């Protein structure tokens, strides 16, 4: 009966490995594999992003000049992965690693890791603040609207229309050079009246003077033909399409400042002279004391300005 074999203390799996073949080393295996693939040492180092000096020491089996055994084995395993060969025969010829410390071979083998401490972002109070003052703002706006007197928005709309028409008429006047001389259009009966009787007006306004209403059968027939009488007002305005009109009397009191709708006719009476501004002259008819006023000579950019006296 044979006696059991007794192993010496400290023997392990490394002692049971077959001794390497003579003349074969880990560095020689790596060099032969690299040369078999036609790779230069510096090219392999560049692809692995490892310093070429470390690969030279590894292939020369000068492991004592490398940091330690763990580094040497990790570097050899990385080279085997780059050459796509089995790493087991190479690792079997390398010195065993001591301890369990894992070191980073180089920046090329593993991506650098930056330890970033977790930081909590400061709490944003913006949404909470907006949610707090939004109802108060709505209440303030509601109170403001409630306090606005009746008719405010209607008057504002009329003034806005007037400002718009004035702005449109002012733009071409600035670029067109000097304004044309005002033309005086008078009825045939008043053609001999001196021009000095016309009141001074802006350059774009034209003075129209109609003869006073005559008495007798002829005057009554003329009034009936025109369909207008001084009792209802000397000025009559009619719009075939929407047209913004403003009329002021001698005291600068606004008699009319709004848009006439298509087919609408208004009759006005006020202290003379009356200043009339028409925003859409092409579709507006003006009658003064029963006579139709030709506003074409007084129109620029479809805006007519005239003074009636």
From TrEMBL:
<feature type="domain" description="Cytoskeleton protein RodZ-like C-terminal">
    <location>
        <begin position="236"/>
        <end position="306"/>
    </location>
</feature>
<feature type="region of interest" description="Disordered">
    <location>
        <begin position="1"/>
        <end position="26"/>
    </location>
</feature>
<dbReference type="InterPro" id="IPR050400">
    <property type="entry name" value="Bact_Cytoskel_RodZ"/>
</dbReference>
<dbReference type="GO" id="GO:0003677">
    <property type="term" value="F:DNA binding"/>
</dbReference>
<feature type="compositionally biased region" description="Low complexity">
    <location>
        <begin position="185"/>
        <end position="198"/>
    </location>
</feature>
<feature type="region of interest" description="Disordered">
    <location>
        <begin position="168"/>
        <end position="198"/>
    </location>
</feature>
<dbReference type="Pfam" id="PF13464">
    <property type="entry name" value="RodZ_C"/>
</dbReference>
<dbReference type="InterPro" id="IPR025194">
    <property type="entry name" value="RodZ-like_C"/>
</dbReference>
<dbReference type="Pfam" id="PF13413">
    <property type="entry name" value="HTH_25"/>
</dbReference>
<protein>
    <submittedName>
        <fullName>Putative membrane protein</fullName>
    </submittedName>
</protein>
<dbReference type="InterPro" id="IPR010982">
    <property type="entry name" value="Lambda_DNA-bd_dom_sf"/>
</dbReference>
């Amino acid at each position: 009966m044979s006696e059991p074999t007794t192993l010496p203390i400290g023997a392990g799996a490394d002692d049971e490995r077959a001794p390497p073949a003579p003349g074969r080393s880990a560095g020689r295996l790596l060099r032969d594999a690299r040369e078999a693939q036609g790779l230069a040492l510096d090219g392999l180092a560049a692809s692995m992003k490892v310093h070429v000096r470390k690969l030279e020491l590894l292939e020369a089996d000068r492991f004592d000049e490398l940091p330690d055994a763990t580094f040497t084995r990790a570097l050899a395993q990385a080279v085997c992965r780059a050459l796509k060969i089995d790493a087991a025969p190479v690792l079997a010829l390398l010195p065993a690693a001591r301890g369990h410390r894992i070191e980073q071979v180089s920046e090329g083998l593993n991506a650098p890791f930056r330890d970033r401490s977790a930081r909590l972002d400061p709490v944003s109070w913006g949404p909470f603040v907006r949610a707090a003052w939004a109802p108060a703002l709505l209440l303030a706006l509601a109170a403001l609207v409630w306090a606005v007197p009746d008719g405010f928005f209607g008057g504002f709309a009329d003034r806005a229309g007037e400002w718009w028409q004035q702005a449109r008429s002012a733009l071409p006047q600035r670029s067109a050079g000097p304004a044309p001389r005002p033309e005086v259009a008078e009825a045939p009966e008043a053609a001999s009246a001196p021009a000095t009787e016309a009141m001074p007006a802006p350059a774009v306004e034209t003075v129209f003077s109609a003869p006073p209403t005559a008495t007798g059968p002829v005057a009554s027939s003329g009034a009936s033909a025109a369909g207008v009488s001084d009792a209802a007002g000397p000025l009559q305005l009619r719009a075939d399409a929407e047209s913004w009109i403003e009329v002021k009397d001698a005291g600068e009191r606004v008699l009319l400042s709004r848009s006439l709708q298509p087919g609408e006719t208004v009759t006005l009476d006020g202290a003379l002279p009356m200043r009339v501004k028409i925003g859409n002259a092409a579709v507006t008819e003006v009658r003064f004391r029963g006579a139709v006023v030709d506003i074409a000579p007084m129109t620029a950019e479809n805006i007519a300005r005239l003074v009636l006296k």
